[in-house]
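Fold it.
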Amino acid sequence: MIQSFANKETELIYHQEFSRRLPQAIQKVALRKLMMIDNAKSLNDLRIPPNNRLEPLHGDREGQYSIRINDQWRICFTMTDNQFYNIEIVDYH
């Protein structure tokens, strides 16, 4: 279950509101992925479908995980006790 967001734009998408700062083309898929995260009971729940490409992050994002929206955009988050925190949609390139 999602407990917190890292930015307002991601929270807008979660509440099914339009964000002017994020590309319109990714918002529908981003909402679907946010719902997957919200319904997940563990990280393993996010391994399906495989195109999520769940992966642990490294470097300055050590301790975070990401799933893909598309080739350019990711949803990054941290997880503690099967709760998801600091959810953010980021342009990973």
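The longest strand covers residues 83-91.
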